[in-house]
Design brief:
- The protein is an alpha/beta fold and 300 residues long.
- The chain is 43% helix and 14% strand.
- The protein has 11 helices and 10 strands.
- It starts with 16 loop residues before the first strand and ends with a strand.
- It binds 3-hydroxybutanoyl-coenzyme A.
- In the N-terminal section; belongs to the enoyl-CoA hydratase/isomerase family. In the central section; belongs to the 3-hydroxyacyl-CoA dehydrogenase family.
Length: 300
C-alpha cells in the first residue's frame, strides 16, 4: 500500500540547509528559489569554473528580481549571503536535503546518489530534479530508496510556480511531506505524482511538443508555429521553449518516451541537427533563434 501524506501524526521536519548539486540552468534556478526563502544553500560543482558560472547565474537571477522591483537591494544582499559554493562533499554532513540537478545521465545520477548516501546523515532527504528518469533507477545503487524523491522544477526555476513532486512506491510519506513543506516555503504550487515515464507534466507536455515537430516535418515553419502558439496565449511557442530549456532534456525525454510508447513517439531529426551544428539554444546564444543580451530573440 502506498502510504498517504495525510497519515495521522506526521509533521514536516524543518529544512534549513540544502545542498544543490549542479550549478547549471536548473541548479542555479533552484538555489535562487531556496535562498530567496531564507534557506541556506551550498552549491556543489565539479570544478571552480563551473562553480563560478553557477554562482554568477544565481547573482543574475537575484539582480533580475531587483531590476523588476520584486526584491529590495537589502533582501538581495541577505539572500546571496545564504549561498556558498563548494567543490566536494565535506560540508554535506549537516544538510537536511540534497537536490541533484545535473544532466539527464542515469550512470552519473546513480554515482551521485551513492556518494551522497555516504556523505550525508541518515535522515537527509535525497532529491532528484530529473524530468523523466525513473527514480527507482536513480536510487538503484543505494540502500536509501525510502529517502529518495523527485522534485521536478521548471525553467526559470526561481520564476515558474509549479513543482512536480515524484514519489515512488518506496518513498516514505514523511519525505513527501517534508518536500511539500519546502515547496510551500519557496512559494511553489506542488503536485504529488507517481513515478512513471514522463511523470505527469511531460506526459502532457511531450505530445504537444511532439505535434509541433510533426508539423515541421510536414514542412511548416518553426517560427510561424511559435508565433501562432504565442497569439493563442501561451507565453512562448514550443521551439522558443525548447531553446530556453536546452536540448539535452528534449533528447532525454524523447528517448524515454520512445522506450515507453514506441508506437506513438515521433523522434524528430531537427534537434540532432541543431546539436550537430553546435547549438544549445539560449544556453549558448544559438538555437532556433539567436540570443543577444538586451535584444529580442531573432529567428535564425
Ligand atoms: N526574473 C524574475 N522574474 C521574471 C523573470 C526573471 N528573469 N523573467 C520574467 N519574470 C516574471 C515577470 O516579472 C512577470 O511576473 P509578473 O507576472 O508577476 O509581473 C512574469 O515573469 C512574466 O514576465 P514578462 O511578462 O516580462 O514576460 P517574459 O517573456 O519576460 O517572461 C517567462 C519570461 C516567465 C520565462 C515566460 O516567457 C514563460 O513563462 N515562459 C514559459 C516557461 C516555461 O514553460 N517553462 C517550463 C519549461 S519546461 C522545464 O523546465 C522542464 C524541465 O524538465 C527542463
Amino acid at each position: 500500500k502506498v502510504p498517504s501524506v495525510t497519515d495521522i501524526g506526521l509533521k514536516p521536519r524543518p529544512v534549513k540547509k540544502v545542498a544543490v548539486i549542479g550549478g547549471g540552468l536548473m541548479g542555479s534556478g533552484i538555489a535562487t528559489a531556496l535562498i530567496l526563502s531564507n534557506i541556506y544553500v551550498i552549491l556543489k560543482e565539479i570544478n571552480s569554473d563551473f562553480l563560478f558560472k553557477g554562482i554568477k547565474m544565481i547573482e543574475v537571477n537575484v539582480q533580475g528580481l531587483v531590476a523588476r522591483k520584486k526584491l529590495t537591494k537589502d533582501r538581495a544582499v541577505t539572500a546571496l549571503a545564504l549561498l556558498k559554493g563548494v567543490l566536494d562533499y565535506s560540508e554535506f554532513k549537516d544538510v537536511d536535503m540534497v537536490i541533484e540537478a545535473v544532466i539527464e545521465s542515469i550512470p552519473l545520477k546513480q554515482k551521485i546518489f551513492s556518494e551522497i548516501e555516504l556523505a550525508c546523515h541518515s535522515h537527509c532527504i535525497l532529491v532528484s530534479d530529473t524530468s523523466t528518469i525513473d527514480l527507482n533507477l536513480i536510487g538503484e545503487k543505494t540502500q536509501s530508496q525510502d529517502r529518495i524523491v523527485g522534485a521536478h522544477f521548471f525553467s526559470p526555476a526561481h520564476v515558474m510556480p509549479f513543482l512536480e513532486i515524484v514519489r515512488t512506491e518506496k518513498t516514505s510519506a514523511q519525505v513527501v511531506l517534508d518536500l511539500m513543506e519546502v515547496g510551500r516555503a519557496i512559494k511553489k504550487v506542488s503536485v504529488v505524482v507517481g513515478n512513471c515515464a514522463g511523470f505527469a507534466v511531460n506526459r502532457t507536455f511531450f505530445p504537444y511538443s511532439q505535434s509541433a515537430h510533426i508539423l515541421v516535418n510536414l514542412g511548416l515553419d518553426v517560427f510561424r508555429i511559435d508565433r501562432l502558439i504565442s497569439s493563442f496565449g501561451l507565453p512562448m511557442g514550443p521551439f522558443q521553449l525548447q531553446d530556453l530549456v536546452g536540448y539535452g532534456v528534449a533528447v532525454a525525454v524523447s528517448k524515454i518516451f520512445a522506450e515507453a510508447f514506441p508506437d506513438r513517439t515521433f523522434r524528430s531529426p531537427v534537434v540532432d541537427l541543431l546539436i550537430k551544428d553546435g547549438r544549445n539554444g539560449k544556453k549558448n546564444g544559438k538555437g532556433y533563434y539567436i540570443y543577444q543580451k538586451g535584444i529580442k530573440p531573432k529567428p535564425d
